[in-house]
Amino acid sequence: MEKNALLRLVNVTKRFPGVLALDKVNLEVRPGEVHGLVGENGAGKSTIIKAITGAHSADEGEVWFDGLKLEQMSPHKSMEIGIACIYQELNQIPHMTVYENIFLGREELSLKKIGWTDRARMRKESIAAIKSLGLDLDPDAEVGALGVGKQQLIEIARAVRTNARLIIMDEPTAALSEREANQLLGIIKDLRSKGHAIIYVSHRLHEVKAVCDRITVLRDGKTVETREVGTTSIDDIVKLMVGREITNKYPKVKVEIGKEMLRVEGLSRKGVIDGISFKIHAGEVLGFAGLVGSGRTETMRALTGADPVDAGKIFVEGKEVHIKNPRDSINAGIAFLTEDRKGQGLVLIQTIEFNSTLVNLKNFKHFGPLLDLKYLKLIAEEKVEELKTRTPSVNQAAGNLSGGNQQKVVIAKWLLSKSKVFIIDEPTRGIDVGAKVEVYNLVNELIKNGAAVIMVSSEMDECIGMSDRIMVMYEGKVTAELKGDEISQEKIMFAASGLQSEKSAA
Ligand SMILES: Nc1ncnc2c1ncn2[C@@H]1O[C@H](COP(=O)(O)OP(=O)(O)OP(=O)(O)O)[C@@H](O)[C@H]1O
Ligand SMILES: [Mg+2]
Q1: Which of 22, 85, 386, 419 is positioned for an S-S bond with 335, CB 3.0–4.6 A?
Q2: Beta-carbon neighbour count of residue 348 at 10 Å?
Q3: What is the Cα–Cα distance from 36 to 460, expressed in whole angstroms?
Q4: For ligand 1, atom 1, which residue shows the shortest CA distance?
Q5: Of the ligands numbered here, which is closest to the C-alpha atom of 431?
Q6: If pLDDT is split at 50, 70 and 90, which confidence band does 504 have?
Q7: Whose CA is nearest to atom 12 of ligand 1?
Q8: pLDDT confidence tier of residue 502, bands split at 50, 70 and 90
Q9: Closest ligand 1 atom to the C-alpha of 404?
Q10: 10, containing H or E segment
């Protein structure tokens, strides 16, 4: 055991009903090091973090920080002793501004006892924090109106602003574009050079490789190993995480392209998206690439009636449809798996079974009331099995699942709907390397069954690896459409930054 560890966990065990989440976990983080924490969905990463900050109390074991044994901790107390944390679940106060969220701790926010002069100071300091990190954030914007990517940037600014000795980041880049993610990696390196220690949790293993000094691998709540990153390859990490090798990361199948399933003409919403037109056929996967904020999610929201539109026509199988709200969209055969699973995708206090079958109750009616319930359960269980969702049973509340496993429930919910067009927005965000392949296999199933799939993805490799055709967006407009041999990382980057090559300008 190291004498000069900044943080030390000794045999930490945590049980939830039916789940041994942490099983005698040991972890040591040195001052000034970036320590990666990796493992499959449900391996226990977030639970370790919560045991450190006191969001959960451990059942057994000890946590030491800077020579001090931590007892009776709470997130607030942990901030006071120099531990800042960006939790995996974003939890801002939606009706408050960006600067208020950056500045305040949760408790202060609910007190609402803040005077004018304090506000001016808060705003000023928040602006300074945003500026020093080089983030693209409007301090006066209302948080609830921002996308998850921006909300993630707020969390980062908040954690960094506290100047804590240990900064814990639980999947901070899950909602960020490549460019923003790279920016964060720069911020982390800068923090390290100033002597801060960082715990970095991510399923994006190339980031882990790029920024971490050491990693600790978790499997089924147990520490597998701690290693120097310099001598460990990404394939090594995967093997340690899942206990086997993954040979084909993007198992895209090609199926015969069928009839036109969806056609969008001139979809516009003032100041957000401008004249979006595209078609998609049965058996096709159409990727949407672009930076966060380029209008991809906004296009999908407009298309599915989640946001109002100013102009545009939508045709499903050649027939014009009028979509005024998400219900109309489902009825028209267009399913939308949103990027924000907490806000839009799941009813967290309800069970997995409830959530998986929520959109599809109609499909089960003909079985009669009694059989129905049994059937629902069976179906939900089947999907849990298929996606390897880690849970004691389908009766578990969705909110009790790990982040990645919640995402799997959202996916199950939509796959069970009998839709013709599936829009999946960042489908594998926060999902571990092994489970990603399961999600891609489900996309394969959908197109084999004659559906059309629109995939919004900020992961370039995924977008290239799984799409037949790619639309690139920039500032609310489509700047390129690429297919076959035209698809390359370079061309996508080019169009995503608003530059137009002669070839794709046509
Ligand atoms: N409040 C809770 N009640 C019951 N079970 C829980 C609770 N929180 C976590 N668990 C369970 O503990 C296990 C570990 O979960 P944890 O969130 O730590 O995983 P993780 O490694 O962070 O996964 P991910 O990569 O998906 O975020 C999971 O099986 C999860 O379902
Ligand atoms: Mg987690």
Answers
A1: 419
A2: 15
A3: 23
A4: 400
A5: 1
A6: very low
A7: 21
A8: very low
A9: 26
A10: strand 7-16
3-state SS, 116-157, equals HHHHHHHHHHHHHHHHHHCCCCCCCCEHHHCCHHHHHHHHHH
- Least Cα distance to 433 among 247, 169, 238 occurs for 238
* Confidence label for 506 from pLDDT (cuts 50, 70 and 90): very low
Instruction: Give the angle 208-213-216 at the CA atoms, nearest 5°.
Output: 70
Q: How many residues does the chain have?
A: 506
- Please tell me the pTM assigned to this model: 0.80
* Confidence at 88, pLDDT banded by 50, 70, 90: confident
Ligand that comes closest to the CA of residue 22: 1
Query: Ligand nearest 170 Cα, by number?
Result: 2
Shortest-distance Cα residue to atom 7 of ligand 1? 400
Atom of ligand 1 nearest to the CA of 39: 21
**Ligand 1 geometric centre to CA of 42 (Å):** 5
Among candidates 457, 355, 365, 451, which has minimal Cα distance to 406? 355
Ligand 1 atom with minimal separation from the 40 CA = 25
| C-alpha of residue 277 to centroid of ligand 2, in Å | 37
pLDDT digits (tens, 9 = 90+) for 213-255: 999 999 999 999 999 999 999 999 999 998 877 888 899 999 9
**Residue from 401, 409, 439 to probe ligand 1 pocket by mutation (most atoms less than 8 Å from CB):** 401
Mention every residue, 6+ apart, whose C-beta is less than 8 A from residue 459: 178, 204, 428
What atom of ligand 1 comes closest to residue 14's alpha carbon? 12
Closest CA to 466 of 478, 479, 453, 480: 453
Find out whether 473 and 288 touch, Cβ atoms under 8 Å: yes
Please tell me the distance between residue 20's alpha carbon and the centre of ligand 1 in angstroms.
10
Q: Which ligand is nearest to the CA of 86?
A: 2
Distance 21 CA to ligand 1 centre (A): 7
Tokens of 240: 């340690």
Q: List phi, psi (to 5°) of 208.
A: -60, -45
Ligand 1 neighbours (beta carbon < 6 A): 16, 19, 21, 39, 41-47, 88, 390-391, 400-405, 432
How far is Cα 340 from Cα 160, in angstroms, rounded to an integer? 24
Instruction: Point out the least confidently predicted range of 149-163, 272-286, 316-330.
Output: 149-163
Pocket mutation for ligand 1, best pick of 389, 402, 410 (most atoms within 8 Å of C-beta): 402
Q: CB neighbours of 300 closer than 8 A, spacing ≥ 6?
A: 288, 306, 336, 423, 425, 454, 456
The pLDDT of residue 420:
93
Residue type for position 325: N
Q: Which domains does the chain have, with CATH numbers?
A: 7-242 (3.40.50.300), 247-333+420-506 (3.40.50.300), 343-418 (no CATH)
For residue 354, give the 3-state DSSP assignment: helix
Question: Buried (b) or exposed (e) across 177-204, using 16+ Cβ within 10 A?
Answer: bbebbebbbebbeebbeeebbbbbbbbb
For residue 172, pLDDT beyond 80 = yes
